[in-house]
Amino acid sequence: MSMPNRARRQFLGALAVSGASCLAVTAFGQDKEGVQQPVFRIARADNLVQKPGEHPLDPALRIATEGLAHIRKDIDDYTCTMIKRERINGVLGEYEYMYAKIRNRKLDGDKIVVPLSVYLNFVKPKSIAGREVVFVETKNNGKLIAHEGGPILGKVSAALDPNSKLAMRGNLYPITEIGIENLVAKLVEKGTRDKQVDPTGKETLVEFKKGAKINKRPCLMLTVKHTVQRPQYDFEVAQVFIDDELNVPVRYIAYGWPLAPGDAQPILEEFTYVDVQLNQGLKDIDFDHTNPSYKFGPIAIGGAKGEAKNGN
Length: 312
Hints:
Elements: H1 5-25, H2 58-74, E1 77-88, E2 91-92, E3 96-103, E4 106-108, E5 111-114, E6 117-124, E7 132-136, E8 144-147, E9 157-160, H3 165-168, H4 180-197, E10 204-214, E11 217-226, E12 237-243, E13 249-255, E14 267-278, E15 299-301
Parallel strand pairs: 9-15
Antiparallel strand pairs: 1-2, 1-3, 1-14, 3-6, 4-5, 6-7, 7-8, 8-9, 10-11, 11-12, 12-13, 13-14
């Protein structure tokens, strides 16, 4: 796809601004050797080529759609360290680090045969260290179970609606939308919507770059830029990094439009997954607040009277 010189300069400028974030991520976790099967090449060279008559987003949507099918078919669960940072009410929060166990939802038609299941153990910053959260979409009346860290708050747990103010405090998205599968589904949704806003593709620039690194692991970097600011667009520039070996997205970062000429692009949200270990055979007990390895106390808020505790 040919690109006007001015638009190309804008695009490359955006890449220069956002490219530094890739380098910063390499310090987020310890690299682990070895690759988990199955390996599924979602980033085949022919998928990256924009064919005649296609929208600039079509190759990206092709990769995302195939990737989503791969995740749903071949990946049952995984563990990882998640790093997130989000802008909420105009304020960009601190990086949050959490160890995560996630079991993907599995469907038989419309029936849930394996529910989305999540366990989170917050590592830093200090203000949230020690927090634990478990969520199984078909258990506990659809509520998550959580407790804070510390000698006092850590002794009791709460059962919360995932969309409640307390559960959403400090979060852009509820726990029901967590994880790599949900990330890819959102990317497909955003790309499909943006195509409808810009059907000719004149406001959309897309670039693929091989050899990017996240946590020392080679990735394919996909960058999407909107050249016109419209309320329907969620970002000016967004980047997705797809791990070459695991073939799943391990980082997403989105930038908004500068508030004034000459200002830097504000980071809107970023999510990074490091030390990803696929198909670990996670069990129900991994997502149970009574697990003796966890530190949940009795459910004092939002639970049924007489809720059992784990004895910790």
